[in-house]
């Protein structure tokens, strides 16, 4: 398990091996949890513009990783979309 500010992610669900932190699948999962956390923060702090900017940067990074994964491994891409409940 990886603890990202109170949010736990199962490593074996998204990683390729035990110490994997660099695969696109794992990075997308971490970024998704971070996006969910920032979205929750912005719901209660609507005028926190620096956090909004950070959220947009994280969303852009996840979008780029998803685009890369869709070109390299379509089956993993579809699996990630369904397991994280992302729409594309």
Question: What does this protein look like?
Answer:
The protein is mainly alpha-helical. It has 4 helices and 2 strands. It has one domain (2-83): S15/NS1, RNA-binding (Helix Hairpins). The protein is 67% helix and 7% strand. Strands 1-2 form a two-stranded antiparallel ribbon. Helix 2 (24-44) runs antiparallel to helix 3 (49-72) and helix 3 runs antiparallel to helix 4. It is globular. The mean pLDDT is 89.
Q: Considering the protein shown, what is the CATH homologous superfamily?
A: S15/NS1, RNA-binding
Counted up, domains total 1
Q: What is the succession of H and E elements? A: EEHHHH
Can you tell me the overall shape? globular
How many β-strand runs? 2
Oligomer: single chain
Low-confidence runs (pLDDT<50, min 5 residues)? none
Helix percentage range? 55-70%
Largest beta-sheet details: 2 strands, antiparallel
Query: How do the strands line up in the largest sheet?
Result: 1-2
The CA-CA distance between the termini, in Å, is: 27 Å
Radius of gyration: 14 Å
Going by CATH, the architecture would be Orthogonal Bundle
Summed up, the helix count is: 4
CATH topology: Helix Hairpins
Strand content bin: 5-15%
Q: Which secondary-structure class do the elements indicate?
A: mainly alpha
The CATH class? Mainly Alpha
Mean pLDDT level: 89
């Amino acid at each position: 398990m990886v603890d990202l500010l109170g949010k736990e992610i199962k490593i074996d669900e998204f990683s390729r091996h035990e110490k994997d932190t660099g695969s696109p699948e794992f990075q997308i999962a971490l970024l998704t949890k971070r996006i969910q956390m920032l979205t929750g923060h912005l719901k209660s702090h609507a005028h926190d513009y620096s956090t909004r900017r950070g959220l947009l940067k994280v969303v852009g990074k996840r979008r780029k990783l998803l685009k890369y994964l869709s070109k390299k491994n379509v089956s993993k891409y579809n699996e990630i979309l369904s397991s994280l409940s992302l729409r594309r």
